[in-house]
Specification:
Blueprint lengths: L27 H7 L19 H8 L1 H4 L3 H10 L4 H36 L12 H14 L2 H10 L4 H10 L22 H16 L4 H10 L6 H16 L14 H5 L3 H11 L8 H8 L5 H7 L21 H5 L3 H5 L6 H23 L4 H7 L8 H15 L3 H10 L8 H13 L4 H10 L8 H14 L5 H5 L1
Length: 484
Amino acid sequence: MENPQSLTPTTGIAIEKIVADPDETLDVDEELNEKSEGEVKDPVNTSKATTVTVEDTTADVLAWFTQYNSHRIAQRLKSLGASEESALEAGNAVQKYSLARTTRQRVRKFLRDRDLKWSSGSTDVEEPAYEVSNLREEAELRGKIYDVDAVIALLVGAGLTGRDIAAIFTHTPGISMMKARREGVEDEEGGETLEDTLNRSFYGVLCSTIKLRKYDARKVLRTCPGLLTKRGSVSAQEVVSILSNLGTAPTSLCRDKAALPMLLSRSPASLFRFVAFLSSDYVRMPVASIGSFLRRSECACVLDLIAPLPRYNFNLLEHINDGLSLSEEEIDKMSIEKLLRDGSNNMENEITKRYNAMFQTADFLRRDVGLENLGQVLAAYPQVLTIDRNKVVDVVNYLQEETGMYHYDVVRMIEAYPMILETEITQIQKVIDFLRSHEVSDDALASIFRAFPALISQDPDTSMKEVVGFLKEIGVTNIGRFIM
């Protein structure tokens, strides 16, 4: 048993000890026999005041929980090479997570027992008995299931360093409470162990399928520890399968290692929905081009809108294996009541609204503007889908009215420079006024913008003035005629 003075009150259990001799230890069995009104006197030396509350005894018998003490975890990770700061951060995250998860499970057990009594016709609902004996039995049971040392040993055996494990525990502390191996363990939640998820994601998807070097695979796990959970590892497999069926070789995914963790963390169902949208009549992107389009880092901004990464939503039990980002600052702001509360959000409704907005933009560009090759425009600039339809309408109408462009001129301009669709009207007007101030005729504006569409996004007060100044220095006097 650790020195009581090393235990911090962040365990959530009131700990109050007065121990004169730090080498003295308390015998739990003697405490259970001699406890009286929550206080026990040391029979060996009555001159030394040793006061132990019932809560204190409870903390002592929870031997399974002491292994999740933040300082103990931090020391273990530091011995494996993690920095002191990252080790302490990981230790705090693990300790707070284990407390919240245990509290949630106790409440659910009480509610389940209560419902069973009510269903049997009994109106007698006993209050939950948190006696030391009951907690000790619970501790013995949990001690057989949870073993953070075995989890760390398994990760080290896979080649992960202390820095890697600290990052994993900090962002996904639930991994510390996963069952390490299948041997001798009967998993009531389906038998999934950390060894299974490690084989599926680290050895399988990252090292075998995508063929990353072990160094790069470790970096991916540090960035996205959720891949070590059951849901995360299965999702990564399905994402790679979807891209493979779209004609993208798995080994090509390692070309952009920075975007790989985010791509593997996407929901396969959300990706499939986006694939259906891209191949629909609204966009008509060739199926063979969709895979390469999705794996590009430029597409991440669109995927963030319609296939967002998993986020913490206060549902601790049901999303225990979601790869949650449970940082110390976030947990400090949450009460136990919030952690126990089933959380839900309107993310699905929000995603549906975003799809409706993309449908409207795509429909306007194809039907009204006449942009037939919308898939090619998206490949050049995926952010086109994120532009509001009303803004696209304003830009198209302004170009036709102010510059005298014909319908097909606007189409060619968008195909050559899709970013024009998100340019502010005031910016376009500033460019037109600058050209007119240098004697460029209105009849020539359409041909100039058609030939140099990127000119619209230039700043007249900086880059365009510098060019005009250079032309004058080399002897060009009629700037308008030169431009035309």
